[in-house]
Amino acid sequence: MRRGLYLVTPDLLDTDALLAAVATVLPARPAIVQYRNKLADAALKREQASRLLALCRAAGVPLVINDSLALALEIGADGAHLGRDDGDPALARAALGPGRILGVSCYNEWQRAVAGAAAGVDYVAFGAMFTSSTKPDAPRAGLDLLTRAHRELRLPVAAIGGITLDNAPALVAAGADLLAVISDVFSAPDPTARAAAYAGLFD
Ligand SMILES: Cc1ncc(COP(=O)(O)OP(=O)(O)O)c(N)n1
Ligand SMILES: Cc1nc(C(=O)O)sc1CCOP(=O)(O)O
Ligand SMILES: [Mg+2]
Predict the structure, then answer these.
(1) What sign results for the dihedral spanned by CA atoms 63, 67, 69, 75?
(2) Quick one: pLDDT at residue 20?
(3) Ligand 1: which residue has its CA nearest to atom 11?
(4) Are 95 and 73 in contact (CB under 8 A)?
(5) Per-residue confidence (pLDDT) for residue 203, from 0 to 100
(6) For 109-144, what is each residue's pLDDT tens digit?
(7) Which residues in the chain come in under a pLDDT of 50?
(8) Has the ipTM of the complex gone over 0.85?
(9) Tens digits of per-residue pLDDT, 62-76?
(10) With contact defined as beta carbons under 8 Å apart, do 62 and 33 qualify?
(11) Which pLDDT score is estimated for 159?
(12) Whether the CB of 125 sits within 6 Å of ligand 1
């Protein structure tokens, strides 16, 4: 897995608008795109995820599905991202096989990262690193968790929550390999340039 920007999609119900938004940032070669939509129903999620998969495949960028291992398997996505209520990572690893990406949310809990590593995940994610307008009530995680995970787990470390181009260098310095971002890229005046600037942090 490459280090770099980990783009998470905004909650758009207009599928053409969603695809256009992601197409705009793919030239910046994000390390991963995650399909996340908290507003869509199951049928719309299936349609959006399938069309995003085709788009990301054409660009050579892996697409990971948030919340649903079943949807990831159904559409043949490149992986799944599981939160606290999204199932057992060890079972997900077995279902995905070794070749696809599995990530877990660890919030501010070190033990979740240790358990994820034991279950064979491909990355562990900590957050919220900063106050997030997308998820204002997310508990905050310290930079020390990134550093500890970088030192003690042989896994890529993702950071999420309130990340901006201004605070991102501190996360990379602390040990983050992946910067998971929604609003700072998709709400930027020039999302392509903003995504490229994130990629530049890993040169
Ligand atoms: C890379 C990454 N890290 C954490 C999350 C949060 O996942 P989760 O806890 O399942 O919360 P929701 O995203 O479903 O609101 C994530 N999506 N991606
Ligand atoms: C989806 C999500 N999960 C978080 C966590 O802390 O687990 S924070 C978050 C929102 C990320 O969006 P933005 O880049 O706009 O802050
Ligand atoms: Mg989730």
Answers:
(1) negative
(2) 98
(3) 83
(4) yes
(5) 81
(6) 999 999 999 999 999 999 999 999 999 999 999 999
(7) none
(8) yes
(9) 999 999 999 999 999
(10) yes
(11) 98
(12) yes
Q: Is there a binding annotation on residue 50?
A: no
**Tell me, what amino acid is at 14?**
D
**5: closest CA among 190, 188, 163?**
163
Beta bridge partners of 179: 5, 159
108 Cβ closer than 6 Å to some ligand 2 atom:
no
What is the CA(161)–ligand 3 centre distance, in A?
13
Strand partners, 64: 34, 79
Confirm or reject: Cβ of 182 under 6 Å from ligand 2: yes
Catalytic, 36? Answer yes
Residue 117: closest CA among 152, 65, 72, 69: 152
What's the CA-to-centroid distance between 45 and ligand 3, angstroms? 13
Residues within 5 A (CB) of ion ligand 3: 66-67, 83
Tell me whether residue 45 is one of the annotated catalytic residues: no
**Helix 15-25 and helix 42-59, axial crossing angle in degrees, nearest 10:** 30
Please state, rounded to an integer, the average pLDDT across all residues of the chain: 97
